[in-house]
Amino acid sequence: VTSLLASCNLFQKTQPAGESVVVEEAQKQQKEAFVPVEKELYVISHTALRYTVPDIHSDPEEAMNSFGNLFKIEAESEHFYKIKSNWDWYLRKEDMGSYEDIRFTKEVLEDVHFIGKREGDTFVDEKEGTTLSKYFTIDLISYEAYQKAKKNGYFPLVKDTLSIKKEKWILTLPCRDTLVEFKDSALKPEADREEYEYLGDMKPIHQYLIAGYYYEAGDKFFIDKRTGHKTEIESHPYLSPDGKYIITLGVTEMGGATAIALYKVLNKDPFAIELVVSAWIRYWVAYEASKNRPTFFGKDGCLYVAMDALDSYEYNYKEEDKPCKYVRIKIK
Fold it and tell me: SS3 sequence, the chain?
């Protein structure tokens, strides 16, 4: 009898191994207790993950890819916010916060979709893992630092758009050696859209800046005020105070985040530039066309840019109401 009791006790201690695992898992997966709330919060981390089950030990469904997005919250628990949606999905509370909490880390500021340069019609990529840090130092700065730099900003583009006007759908540019004309497609109704706009005079390098608008596309380019020669650039240009570099910023061909390119000015007469690098920024967008928050080079040789996270950027907004972030870009 004693032997039988001992065997039973041993069985009770060793047998329920599987049951103990179940108990442990049950303890891990204690249900989150949600309470209703009504609030709006931003995704503040670029690594935020989406959960379909509110369990910190479960595998998230996928990456959010909504850095900077503003979501309506309908409930919260100790670890999660439940997003107001037709589907059940959740975000970790540590990944949500106010606009001021959005984390523009070094990785966020420097990461890219593509980086390299065009050689003819081919885009040649840099080696995998290359970021903007190879060519630039990018720092998040305060509004006050931006405004201080702006007081002594370098604005070489003279927007004398009244001096050169389009007449009867023809834009005529007087150059020293020739006249250059661009004709809108209004003169050719059967053609696809083709319109041109004079943006100003980049006096230090003797170049007119022109914008072209086409069917589902657009570009910007220089016309030399002496020879009439056309020089293609990727987007809106910003000339450094020493005249040695041009940085362009603009929306990528596919829309979304900002395209940035760095050019070296090889010669002013005859005018010649060389593309150093071109990249599509992954996480942020420049307000490069903003009147009240212009992009400019400071007297320190750095480019100052008003920008926003990709998913909190607004194409149409009242500038006095929309907050934004500011960065300083230094050429290495």
Answer: CHHHHHHHHHHHHHCCHHHHHHHHHHHHCCCCCCEEEEEEEEECCCCCEEECCCCCCCCCCEECCCCCCEEEEEEECCCEEEECCCCCCEEEHHHEECHHHCCCCHHHHHCEEEEEEEECCEEEECCCCCCHHHCEEEEEECHHHHHHHHHCCECCEECCCCCCCEECCEEEEECCCCEEEEECHHHCCCCCCEEEEEEEEEHHHCEEEEEEEECCEEEEEEEECCCCCEEEECCEEEECCCCCEEEEEEECCCCCCEEEEEEEEEEECCEEEEEEEEEEECCEEECCCCCCCCCEECCCCCEEEEEEECCCCCCCCCCCCCCCEEEEEEEC
